[in-house]
Amino acid sequence: MLLENNNTLEVIPQIITNDAEEFLFVAKYVQSLGYKELNWNLGCPYPMVAKSGMGSGLICNPEKIDNILERAHKETDILVSMKMRMGYDHAEEILDVFPILDQYPLKNVAIHARIGKQLYKGPVDLEAFERCITSTKHKLYYNGDITSVEAFKSIQTRFPSLDHFMIGRGLIADPFLPQMIKDDTTEYPKDRWDIFEEFHNTIYSQYDEYLSGPTPIKMKMLGFWEFFSQSFSNQQKTYKAIKKATNPFKYKQAVSMILANERKLKS
Ligand SMILES: Cc1cc2nc3c(=O)[nH]c(=O)nc-3n(C[C@H](O)[C@H](O)[C@H](O)COP(=O)(O)O)c2cc1C
């Protein structure tokens, strides 16, 4: 969380709340650490969160959103950005929120083009997202299902006025994706698996440093492999091999085997 630990990429802290006091407390705290921006999560779809009026469950309450934004802008000078779905029950909910959002100098509004009720299932609703573009003065970032260079191009072609796109799961599944999009190529680097291995080892060793015991690190890495495995030749076999590894030694062996297999397939 300390700014000096996040000095390669810009990290933006995020809050999920429906309480103005809590928002102000966190805003002031992150500012005291040196952060300039706070992102507000109105996207979380999980019923426990949404049913208590937070995350995507807050989108249907423009008054509360207004109250929190008003206090945030009156009582702090933090830059606020939003991360939202288009509603919880209906994709039209967000349309009543835009007139409120337009009253504040938000940095941007990133929209995951689904509704909360969908969780992560079903397609993104591009028509509803298109309505959002014409319903606000704010800069919108598109988010949802960008999992390949082709998928990115198709979204970019559909929404030519946008210049910011957010990638979530697709980035973990394929860490090369953002660079390939930037380079407009579907070619992986020649040393793809060496780069991946180094990336994996960095994540592993940094978590290993502060997580104690073999189970937490295994669970943490398993979370990554749920997505990493999607880029491997045999997704299910890859995930299973990691899941089966019962200790750090076996885990490292499994990773080596998985990577050796990919290198063999390539040559
Ligand atoms: C396991 C998981 C955890 C997530 N946690 C957050 C979060 O803390 N904050 C947030 O804004 N979005 C969170 N998201 C949502 C993603 O940021 C993104 O909006 C969503 O996955 C859709 O984009 P994608 O199709 O590119 O993944 C999470 C998604 C997943 C799958």
TrEMBL record:
Gene3D superfamilies: Aldolase class I. GO terms for molecular function: RNA binding; tRNA dihydrouridine synthase activity. Residues 4-208 form the DUS-like FMN-binding domain. It comes from the Bacteria. CDD domains: DUS_like_FMN. This is Probable transcriptional regulator. It comes from Algibacter lectus. The lineage of its organism: Bacteria, Pseudomonadati, Bacteroidota, Flavobacteriia, Flavobacteriales.
